[in-house]
TrEMBL record:
Binding site for heme: 333
Keywords from the UniProt entry: Heme, Iron, Metal-binding, Monooxygenase, Oxidoreductase
Species annotation: Circinella minor
Domain of life: Eukaryota
A GO molecular-function annotation: iron ion binding
Entries under PANTHER family matching the protein: BIFUNCTIONAL ALBAFLAVENONE MONOOXYGENASE_TERPENE SYNTHASE, CYTOCHROME P450 FAMILY 4
Descriptive protein name: Cytochrome P450
Similarity remark: Belongs to the cytochrome P450 family.
Cofactor field: heme
Amino acid sequence: MNIIKSQQKHTIFGRFAVGPNIIFLPQGPHWKAQRSFTIRYSTQPTNTDPDKVVDSTSIDVHSIMTRWTLDAIGIAGFDKNSEWVTRYHNIMQASSNPVFHIFPFLENPRLRFLFPSRKMVHHELDLFLAKMQEIITHKREILNNNKLATNKRTNEKDLLTLMLESAKEGNDKLTDEELLSNICGFFVAGHDTTANALSYIMYNLATHPKVQEKVREEANQVLGNQPVDVLPTMEQIKEMPYTQMVIKETLRLNVVAETIVPRKVTEDTDLGGVLIKKGAQVQLDIMGTHRNPKIWNNPDSFDPERFAPGGEAEKVAKMGNGWVPFSNGARMCIGLNFSLTEQRVFIPMLLRKYELSLPDNSIHKDKAIFSGIGQFVPVDLQINMKKRY
Ligand code: HEM
């Protein structure tokens, strides 16, 4: 995410998710300033109700999870049939077109006339960015005029509200352009990743009924087993360690975001007897690490017990960075706590209310099939949802 070449600035992805001075991009002091303002709200819980999104017995998991995580980052007003959701999906789909990934110069505005359908997506993107700006302006007006909205407790505010509040505070004030870039960046980094993670968790639970039952029992023990929806508090979330184990194992087995994390070596380093010279470009392969049989036993199997106290994951952690879905170091994911909290709220609520299973004709019967560049999305994943109350 942090190496975006200048020729990519005209691409769909470059225009949407990078923009000027977005947090992913700058190095040095400017990045530090942006990161220090954003990190303050990355631990806020969401209060979105997962029940709102499930409206049939068999659901297209990824598209529904995407809508839910959009709500959670607060750039809502995007109801499920909204033209903006469709437009956003078209833009994201176009952004992962391999031809323009390999030859980004083809998207130079002077060459776009050669690709009318691509030109159309750029027009859709213009509309989308204008809409985002409108949402920002509208939210700002609400915050300026409505004392009730600003007086809410921090953990009741959505991410957009917190970003707007942070943007006008302190020495690191953001320009409108920077704010829009950051919001778009968070839009991409903040909801598709978690939507992918939730989709894979639902898949792993649907294909491992005993694990599913254990997560449900834990949820009922903590939240009660009456036939009513209960929104877990932060304290209750902490009382559900097995759910956390399932989330961690899913993030090990199913890499949902970047798998290749690039770094430049800042000093000569001895890595297990291999000298890596200062200035060298190196890459961490997250998926390769998570599926490495020298690090994990039977790495291709789904087994949440690895993350039990005293289990395999603790031994792996003593050896080094064997579990790194959010990367590590100064540039590791800023949304780690936000995403984990979303997942820890969603899963217990969902399982108290629904039993999950895979349709007999699922293409994912033997293993999860995914596609994507930069993000790994399960392909056409349908899950049966049987209501429990
Ligand atoms: C399961 C969910 C997620 C996963 C697996 C994930 C993974 C990652 C990874 C691997 C990186 C690259 C870090 C590096 O270069 O070392 C990253 C960066 C980033 N992520 Fe996430 N992410 C997730 C959710 C989120 C959420 C919910 C947000 C925001 C609300 C977010 C915001 C960011 C930002 C802003 C960066 C760039 C940080 C920087 O360069 O300083 N991510 N993420």
